[in-house]
Sequence to fold (174 residues):
Amino acid sequence: MRGDADAGPAAWAALAPGVAAGAPRASLFASYLRTRGAGVARDPAEALALARVAAEGGVPEGMFELHVLPRQRDGGTPEGLAWCERAAARGHARALFNLAVFAAIGEGQPADLALARSRYAAAAEAGSAQAAHNLACMLRDGEGGDVDMDEAARWAAQADAMGVPVWGFGDGEE
Fold:
């Protein structure tokens, strides 16, 4: 939706038949358009309904949207957290990352740095650069477990390769 001003309306027109048929992926992308107001009026309620079609159709990104969209509005819900957990169970990197953050800060549960560390590892394995960064820091600092400089350096290199340098390793040194 960036760049071409006609992309939003054209995308909405292309997605409309799939949305009408209840296609999960078309509904997911239509949800994105409704969330951003690209090519159609911004409509948070319809964006949420479209994300639900995607989520219930088994699309992890739709499950994640059912976590994020209510959270933006009202700080999150138990249902939203359950959808985040479903997306994470399917390897969705951002859902895995969010669950790691919740464990680290104690959102909805007591803070558990060992759990956060294992969740950051899962998110990093799924391709989250920020999770690789946070995991490298936890390994370097001994948060949630023993210090492991070799593993910290490995995850710091992965984070750096994805554009998120870690202070104290390679390009992250200042």
